[in-house]
Design brief:
The protein is of the alpha/beta class. The chain folds into 2 domains: about 20-215, 3-Layer(aba) Sandwich (Rossmann fold), CATH 3.40.50; about 235-370, TPP-binding domain (Rossmann fold, 3-Layer(aba) Sandwich), CATH 3.40.50.1220. Helices cover about 30% and strands about 20% of the residues. It has 9 helices and 17 strands. The protein has helices at about 1-10, 40-60, 70-85, 100-115, 125-140, 255-265, 270-275, 305-315, 340-370; strands spanning about 30, 35, 40, 60-70, 90-95, 120-125, 145-150, 150-155, 160-165, 170-175, 185, 205, 240-245, 265-270, 295-300, 320-325, 335-340. Strands 7-11-6-1-4-5-12 form a 7-stranded parallel β-sheet, sandwiched between helices. The protein has a 5-stranded parallel β-sheet with strand order 14-13-15-16-17. A hairpin with a 4-residue loop joins strand 9 (about 160-165) and strand 10 (about 170-175). Helix 4 packs across helix 5. The protein is globular.
Length: about 375
């Protein structure tokens, strides 16, 4: 009995991983630079920021991979790749790459990877990034971890540690690719902080010539229809968000969330249960199966703070939670905890903010009047 107890008390040793010798030829961290009509998706810059950390841990270069047509718009993006921290920009331009199409981009990216052999390739978990990542990973016969919320390096064997929610969001798991290279992952927008832009930084450009034939590409671009909401505020990029959850109790109470948001000039968010109940549109959902946000202020009203919701908003600068339950998981990571009934606290907050804003406006008006005189 004593021996059994002694054995159980011994710490479990982490098995030493011996990676194949062929992996030594793979070096560097790559980030796919996603762009459309001259506009780069912010997730590309976010990934360069995280990629810088990973590359420094590995002691290798950080590179941006830029595919596109022959226009000046693509050439202008090269400067930004350097400004956001990349040491190198792999540039592949061809008329066939004027618009994103899975086949042409997959062929191009696969050729680049096989030629230069990066050990890590990161893409945004956007519509385009997910489409491209799956095809490239399949073509290269390598592993891919999708929709990651965390990335790190195991310096003992240079493995990429890709973390993401699993089992319906009830657990977080870390996935390691021991069998193939490159190690690939897609990362949700707004999960990683935006790095500071430094216009003095310049990336070395490596131009790669591609042999592509339009006749061999099955899909054709007939027209481009812009997103009708492209010029409107987007929840994922809002500075202030007020979200409501199941604790709002009934649909008419959800108007309290909208009312407070209006006073603050904030966007309205919602938890998955609130969306499923029909209290808010699906585009307002924050969390694992919704949007990831990084606002300056996030107010969560009637939201318990389960991991499914947490992974979508824990990057906020300040989190204020409102809940009747003092033991709600939200309060484990919130900056401010307001314990009470949301139908009482939301109107009280609205009145307090309205009073403060009115006083600030009056003060600025008085100063302006005094300066004018």
């Amino acid at each position: 009995m004593s021996d059994a107890l002694d054995t159980a008390a011994k710490p479990i040793k982490k098995p030493k991983r011996v990676l194949p010798e062929r992996f030594k030829s793979y070096k560097g961290v790559w980030v796919f630079i996603e762009h459309e009509h001259g506009h780069v998706h912010p997730v590309s810059w976010e990934l360069l920021g995280k990629g810088r950390e990973l590359a420094d841990k590995l002691g290798v270069e950080l590179s941006g991979v830029l595919l596109g047509g022959m226009g000046a718009e693509v050439a202008a993006i090269v400067k930004e790749v350097g400004a956001y921290g990349a040491d190198t920009c792999y540039l592949a331009q061809h008329p066939v790459l004027n618009d994103y199409r899975n086949q042409s981009y997959t062929v191009s990216m696969t050729e680049l990877v096989n030629t230069y052999q990066p050990e890590i390739l990161l893409l945004g978990a956007t519509t385009q990034g997910r489409d491209l990542a799956g095809s490239v990973a399949t073509t290269l016969l390598t592993g891919l971890t999708a929709d990651c919320t965390g990335l790190d390096i195991d310096t003992s064997d240079r493995s990429l540690l890709s973390s993401r929610p699993t089992f319906g969001g009830s657990l977080m798991c870390t996935i390691v690719n021991l069998a193939t290279r490159p190690q690939m992952a897609t990362v949700r927008p707004r999960v990683m902080p935006m790095p500071a832009r430094n216009p003095e930084l310049v990336a070395k450009v490596i131009e790669h010539s591609l042999q592509l034939d339009e006749a061999s590409i099955v899909t054709k671009v007939l027209d481009f229809i812009p997103d009708a909401r492209a010029d409107k505020p987007q929840l994922a990029f809002a500075d202030f968000i007020v979200s409501g959850g199941r604790g709002m109790a009934k649909p008419e109470n959800f108007s309290l969330v909208s009312s407070l948001a209006k006073i603050l000039g904030a966007e309205v968010g919602a938890s998955r249960p609130a969306v499923h109940a029909g209290w808010a549109d699906a585009e307002r959902q924050v969390g694992q199966s919704g949007k990831t946000v990084r606002p300056k202020l996030y107010i969560a009203a009637g939201i318990s703070g389960a991991v499914q919701h947490r992974v979508g908003m824990e990057g906020a600068d300040v989190i204020a939670g409102i809940n009747l339950d003092p033991n709600a998981p939200l309060f484990d990571f919130a900056n401010y905890a307001l314990i009470g009934n949301v139908t009482e606290l939301l109107p009280a907050l609205e009145a307090a903010f309205a009073k403060r804003l009115a006083a600030t406006k009056a003060s600025r008006t008085a100063v302006a009047t005094e300066e004018a005189n």
